[in-house]
Design goal:
Blueprint lengths: L5 E2 H17 L1 H5 L11 H15 L6 H15 L2 H18 L4 E2 L1 H18 L8 H10 L11 H22 L1 H6 L4 H17 L33 E9 L11 H9 L3 E8 L2 E8 L2 H8 L3 E10 H13 L6 E9 L2 H9 L4 E4 L8 H10 L2 E7 L6 H11 L4 E4 L4 H9 L8 H14 L1 E7 L4 E3 L2 E3 L4 E5 L2 E6 L2 H9 L10 E7 L6 H11 L4 E9 L4 E5 L1
Parallel strand pairs: 7-8, 7-9, 9-10, 16-17
Antiparallel strand pairs: 1-2, 3-5, 3-6, 4-5, 11-14, 11-18, 12-13, 14-15, 16-18
Length: about 550
């Protein structure tokens, strides 16, 4: 597609193609994780961030206005470091071009330069050899080649080519990439998006659709519908039906008759036919009748059935819970799993967000939690280094000066920090400092099974071996828990000063306790060992020493 200027409508189509290009390679990007932990999520975070932007922005021929709406949606939906940086690139892009209804190659250049600069400014300690480097070098190395008369596809062609060169060089900049034998996953994901935009201009359309993300929707409490509940609302039934030649003459499918027959079975009926597929939405108390009738024409591609009485009662409860009672100091924790949510609640956490398996909570989810708090001061326990950027972004959006982020690196650090709070002390700043001191006081070791072979921090790692790490540093790897824990504890400098060992167990905790405790006792025979069931998804266990 040889065009020299692009409006908002074409820009949106290019972005959707970029998203679909990323989605097709999402698993590959996820697997480019430096750490051999089975939690690769860079591709997923970038995908969900861009999806949220595309959902939020309404189609608009004015490119500047569309880009601003896109950016706002991405900022709110940003997940993980890669998602936040991606949202910041498009924030800088949109701010630079917000007054442009259509743009040419030169303005694209200026927009992407503004984008990478905005992303650098958003990161407290920018690390080279990452998506930041790829975005910066890719555009800076071609700036002298771009002019206003250039075709847009030519601009994207050389932009992608230059970014790929930069990506290939990232292991030479960031030693951990070279040691792990991977390229930077964030940079690779960003290239896929831009490459997908370029492919659209080359008339290479990539199949896919923007998915509905219900991760922010309130979870249904099934206890609100029991044997005494009234059933006034019926069911919300949605499905896509594939018409089948074995069941009907598709060429003679009568949509009006189909609608008429369904109208007698419910209300709020919507029927849309697209080729040989029919999408149906209906509120009905007789879902079995609707299903049986639909199957006379074909079979279901997708299907969703929800009890609207349950939805209604949960919605009412959700509305009531929007604002919590006033407290002096509100505490928000981000964990993964019901067991940890209970533990944090028992320790006085007012809101506990379930961050899912990898705990990459979006900025919007954090903002909603903050808005629920009525407090003089609010503290947020991030419990994951990859949450900090999204949390910072949420704080920046709200522009409140009473929010404090406690940078706990895992759930056990957050737990101990909560335990250090002196809830009866009126000095809120002192309480916050005490909780921060709790993070500093506990040394933690995470244990997990390696997802692949690699070498990191000079440690040879074999797939499925037990691996121990301290924050972002690999300490040891072996197939024997005694060996791993012994080598790890030898690297804890002040272990002789510790008095207690807390072991937070994950779902897959199945280590030999005798071997585990032997290694701990050899490091410090005076340590009191305590176990807690945490239900961790990624880690087999977290060992804490205080």
């Amino acid at each position: 597609m040889k065009v020299k200027r692009i409006d908002g409508i074409l820009f949106e189509k290019m972005l959707v193609n970029g998203l679909n290009n990323l989605k097709q390679n999402e698993t590959k990007i996820n697997e480019m994780n430096v750490f051999p932990v089975p939690d690769g999520d860079t591709g997923s975070n970038m995908r969900m961030t861009l999806e949220n932007g595309l959902r939020s922005a309404k189609t608009n021929a004015n490119l500047g206005a569309y880009a601003v709406a896109l950016s706002q949606g991405m900022l709110m939906g940003a997940r993980g470091n890669s998602g936040v940086i991606l949202s910041q690139i498009f924030k800088g892009f949109s701010e630079n071009l917000r007054r442009c209804s259509i743009i040419d190659a030169k303005e694209f250049l200026e927009g992407f330069i503004a984008g990478y600069k905005c992303a650098y400014n958003a990161v407290i300690k920018p690390v080279e050899g990452t998506i930041l480097t790829v975005a910066r070098e890719g555009i800076e190395h071609i700036r002298d080649q771009i002019n206003r008369g250039m075709y847009i596809d030519n601009f994207f062609s050389i932009y992608v080519l230059e970014m790929k060169k930069s990506l290939d060089y990232t292991p030479n900049i960031l030693p951990c990439l070279k040691e792990a034998g991977v390229l930077d996953s964030g940079g690779a994901g960003y290239i896929l998006i831009i490459e997908g935009m370029y492919k659209f201009l080359q008339e290479e359309i990539i199949d896919g659709e923007v998915l509905q993300d219900d991760s922010n929707a309130p979870k249904l409490d099934t206890a609100k519908f029991d044997e005494y509940s009234s059933f006034d609302y019926g069911y919300c039934l949605e499905f896509i039906l594939q018409l089948m030649v074995s069941k009907t003459d598709i060429s003679k499918f009568n949509q009006k008759l189909f609608i008429k027959d369904l109208e007698g079975l419910g209300e709020s009926l919507v029927v849309v036919k697209d080729g040989t597929k029919v999408k149906v939405h209906i509120h009905t108390k007789l879902p079995a009748h609707v299903i049986t009738y639909a199957q006379t024409y074909g079979e279901f591609v997708t299907f969703k059935l929800e009890n609207m009485a349950l939805q209604h009662s949960n919605l009412e409860a959700h509305e009531e819970e929007k604002k919590l009672p006033h407290v002096d100091l509100a505490k928000i924790g981000i964990v993964n799993g019901e067991q940890l949510k209970e533990i944090y609640t028992e320790l006085g956490c007012h809101i506990v967000l379930d961050g899912g398996k990898t705990m990459n909570t979006s900025s919007e989810e954090i903002i909603k939690a903050i808005k629920m708090c009525d407090a003089e001061k609010i503290v947020i326990f991030t419990n994951n280094k990859n949450i900090e950027l999204a949390c910072n972004q949420a704080i920046d959006v709200l522009k409140q000066d009473n929010i404090h982020m406690i940078k706990s690196k895992n759930s056990l650090q957050g737990y101990y920090a909560l335990a250090m709070d002196e809830a009866d002390n009126d000095n809120l700043d002192y309480r916050i400092k005490q909780m921060e001191a709790g993070v500093e006081a506990i040394s933690t070791i995470t244990l997990f099974n390696a997802s692949r072979d690699c070498t990191l921090n000079g440690v040879n790692i074999k797939k499925d071996n037990i691996v121990a790490s301290n924050d972002s540093i690999i300490l040891a790897s072996h197939n024997d828990i005694y060996n791993v824990v012994k080598k790890s504890l030898e690297q804890i400098k002040d272990i002789s000063d510790k008095a207690m060992c807390i072991i937070l167990k994950g779902k897959n905790f199945n280590y030999d306790l005798e071997s585990l405790e032997k290694a701990i006792n050899e490091a410090n025979p005076y340590l009191e060992i305590n176990y807690m069931d945490g239900g961790l998804e990624i880690y087999d266990a977290i060992i804490g020493l205080v």
